[in-house]
Structure formats: C-alpha cells, structure tokens
Specification:
This protein has a two-stranded antiparallel sheet with strand order 1-2. Helices cover 50% and strands 5% of the residues. The protein has one domain (25-112). Helix 4 (54-65) packs across helix 5 (77-93). With 115 residues, it is mostly helical.
Length: 115
C-alpha cells in the first residue's frame, strides 16, 4: 500500500490522529511567544539603548532572559541566537529592518529603517 492510500485510510478513521508537519521558518513560533521581549527590543532600538546589529542584540537578549527563563547563570547560546534571528526576521516582516543589498564582509548585514 502506498503512502497516499495509507494516509487516506487513516484520515477516514474517526479515531486516527494525523499529525501536521511543523511550520517552516526560523524561529517563527519563538518570535510570537516572545512578543513582550520583542516589543521591548524594538523600544530599546528606537531609544538607542540597543543597536540593531547581531552582537548587541544577542547580548541584550542574554541579559533579559538570564535566570528568568533558563533557571541558571548558564545561557543557552543556541537558544539566544535563534531568538536574535527570530527578532530580526520579524522586524524585517514588520518593515522595521531590511537586508543590506550592499553587504560586504565586515559591514552591516541589516539596515534599521524603523525610526
């Protein structure tokens, strides 16, 4: 039995549960769950408290989630990087930031346009 017929048979059964594939996109759900932190980051960037660049944003996130969400002083570097990327993706989607079309190694990869 091929996979299409198998899925159809499962879908026809009332007690069968068909799992949906996970959403694609980097940190899509994470940016939505971190709304308040994302909004605070936007405010921090607009008030010049944080620069809209990778390292300053990464450090800004690290300071805000220490002890509160990680439960220890050890920070999950991968998790913070994913949050930073999710913030940037959402800022691009919201029209606050764009990818630098003239990006060269060592230069700005993103341009803040939300002021």
């Amino acid at each position: 039995m091929d996979s299409v017929k198998c899925q159809q048979n499962l879908a026809n059964r009332s007690d069968a549960k068909v799992e949906q594939p996970p959403e694609k996109g980097l940190g899509k759900g994470l940016a939505n769950r971190s709304d308040s932190l994302y909004e605070k980051w936007i405010t921090a960037v607009q008030s010049k408290e944080c620069r809209p660049a990778v390292k300053p944003t990464w450090l800004w996130i690290q300071k805000r989630i220490s002890n509160k969400e990680t439960g220890s002083r050890t920070h999950d570097r991968t998790r913070i990087s994913i949050m930073q990327k999710a913030f940037f993706n959402r800022a691009i989607r919201d029209g606050l930031m764009k990818v630098n079309p003239n990006f060269k190694r060592g230069g700005k990869k993103f341009i803040w346009i939300g002021d």
